[in-house]
Structures are given as structure tokens and as C-alpha cells.
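Known limitations

C-alpha cells in this collection are predictions and should be treated as such. Users comparing against experimental data should check residue numbering before alignment. To illustrate the layout, the record for 7,8-dihydroneopterin aldolase is reproduced below. The input appears on top and the generated C-alpha cells appear beneath it.
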Amino acid sequence: MGQIALEGMEFFAYHGYYDEEQKIGNKYGVDLYLQTDLHAAGASDNLEQTVNYETLYNLVKHEMSIPARLLEHVAHRILEGVYQQFPFVQQVKVSVSKFNPPLGGICHRARITVEKNKA
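Generated C-alpha cells:
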């Protein structure tokens, strides 16, 4: 087993519980971690035997472009999308952060993290 990670992805998106948040938008960060077998790709140097980072990034970018009320929902969609695109992945962990959330005070980011093992 091994880990593939895309860390520090940033997007401007329109997520939020309040209607105003979905109109104004905000900056978000996403960190994604996958557990999968990397031995075949390591031995063969063949991209088809592993996760394509560009495909993975575009999956996250697509899900971030669809407005949602809750960060938990966005993270769930990303997680399920990874399993659909790459069924051989054994575990997915995704964190979604909202920068400077409107809480009435100083808060650099609000972050949620979800993790799922393949059943």
C-alpha cells in the first residue's frame, strides 16, 4: 500500500449555509489523501496502473464548482467521486476548508474532514 496526496488545492467557490454566501463566494482549500497499491505502477512506470493526478484534480475542481450549503456535502461528493473514478483505491480522506468564514470574529479557516475505507 501507499499514499497519494494532493495538498493545498485552492478554489473560489459558492458554498455556504446562508444565501448571501452562495452569491458572494469565498476561497476554499482542499487536501486529498488516497491509500492504494502503488507497487505495480512503481515497477512498470505505467500511469494506467495508478491514480492520474490531473484526473483527480479535475474531479475535485468539478465538485467545488457545484454550490452546496455544507462543506460536509462537498467533501462527501469528492470522496464518492474518487471511488467511482478509481475503484481500486482502498481509502479516501478529504479535508475542505473555508477561509475567513463569516462567524462574526477572527477565524482563519473552518475545516471539515471525512474519511472512508472501501467496503
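For this record: The first helix runs from residue 19 to 24. The domain at 2-117 is CATH 3.30.1130.10 (GTP Cyclohydrolase I, domain 2). Please report discrepancies through the issue tracker.
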